[in-house]
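[Q] Does anyone have a clean structure-token version of this?
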Amino acid sequence: MMPQTFDPAAVGSSHEQVNITVDELDQILRLQLTLMEALAAERVDSCVLDQLCSMAERLLANSVASVMLLDQHTGSMNVVAGPNIPQEAKKQLDGLVPGATSGSCGTAVFNNVPTFVRDTFTDERWYSLRSVVENFNICSCWSMPIRDQAGRAIGSFALSSFEHRMPSSFHKRLLEVGAVIISIYLGKEQQRLAVEKSHYQLIEALERDSVTGLPNAAKLAHCLSTLPPPNSLLILNINNFSYINSAYGWEFGNVLLQKVAEALGHIAQAETYRLQGDEFALLYSGDGIDFTQEIKTLRNYFFEHSLSVNGISFHITCNYGAASGTGVFDKSRIALIKAKRAGKNHHYIYSEQADEPEREERMAYMHWSLVLHEALGKDAITPVFQGIRNNRTGEIDRYEALARIRFKGELLAPKLFLDVARLSGLLPSITRRMIDKSCQIMANYSEPFSINITEDDLSQGYLLRYLERKTSEYGIDPERLMLEILEGVSSTGKKDHIEQLAELKQSGYKLAIDDFGTEYSNFERIIALKVDCVKIDAKYIRDIATNPTSYEVARAIAYFASNVGIETVAEYVHDDEVQSIVEQLGIDYSQGYFYSEPEEK
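[A] Here you go.
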């Protein structure tokens, strides 16, 4: 459902940056042309608005775009465009009455001002639409009013995100431009003159930085696509610029950025661009650039010359990332990240031999990120169930629900996507789907079953309410459901997380410690939590028959658990010899391919 893009350089950054590709810029211009043709022909084609929404979504990962218009007769708003918004969501939004608590769009029209909400779960402006937030996981929403010729708000153009975030200056500009386009589309009487003017404004908005007047990242991308290789690019990031903004304000910081832009224009024999926030780029033709000398020149200049703003002087330092050849934008970004890792005022020059393998890893991350987002959008997260053998009875009498992704007719193992989910903050989205689908399936059976939960789930604080809703919906007794948590969460977890686990336990859910023994095992905390089960980590069971250390660790855990009345599960039981030792140690349950492969039912 959700289109995705990914910028490797944005990983770990508090500033979001969307790098506009030439293709995306061309799409915007084609959209503009489509609009002009529609106006000239005096025809209304609603797909133009859908195209605008799709274009906006491609410029903000993990989002959906929508257009809502105000019905002058009823005074309510309806969704008229939003190709990737579910029909059920549109039904819930249709008939929205503008007001101070009617979500970002209703508030934007009510106040006739842009409305940017970072957290829809808590912001009072979303009070009347809290059910929409919970049903469709709308985390943030940015809305721009659409105005008629008299300046009255007649609708809204919005980007709704599945992450908590605020818009960058580019995304604000994108919303402004989109709202203008829609206004022109609705006001056909302006026709060619207005369209041509907006066409120019659109290009300026996408290719020119409003603070420094420099060409921006979109313009750089366009130039890199048209200039014949090889090229050379140097990206610099001002150190501690956020401190200046915090101390003196954004307007002061903007003037300082203008001073930096002027200085770069005088020093560097290259085309200067402002990319985002406190980042600039210098584009050189050819690949014979001595970056070490270029960086030395820049460092010396900023060391010897202060930048004065309102009588206050600053000496700045920067991190530098550089690359030559082809694909220099991404490679310079990678180099800048490495320079930052080394500390302030460092530089790094990209090396094909040393850095290409890491770049391939990033490309793999991008691939699996797209797969994961597609899986969540298409509801392709699928539980499979692995039986757990009771070593007292010899029967399989409980199951663990394991997450898989159904992709192109195959079920993908979690090792392919869980790390990506963790880095992307999407583990709770997977957990929700696993709880829902596992409870739905296990409602047809009577055996106990377990589901894995994560520290991210506890951080969001939704588990108890969500579990209560789903177990009630499917008629699941909480005592049938065991929640598996990693050892680190239980042994060193935050106070709030431990309190949540205690609440879950009090509500009847059972608790298991997964991969027990991988970290420093806090036996006292295990007892305090009244854990029902510990699962001995697979690395000790795998070679328990040949490794004395693994044997002793497993024996110690089994002995401790037996003495305090906690059940034990041996993970990765794969042959008779291992099973025999597991039984000798008195381990209560065995789990592994020797007894059960994960199956959908």
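[Q] Thanks! Anything notable?
[A] The first strand starts at residue 63 and ends at 70.
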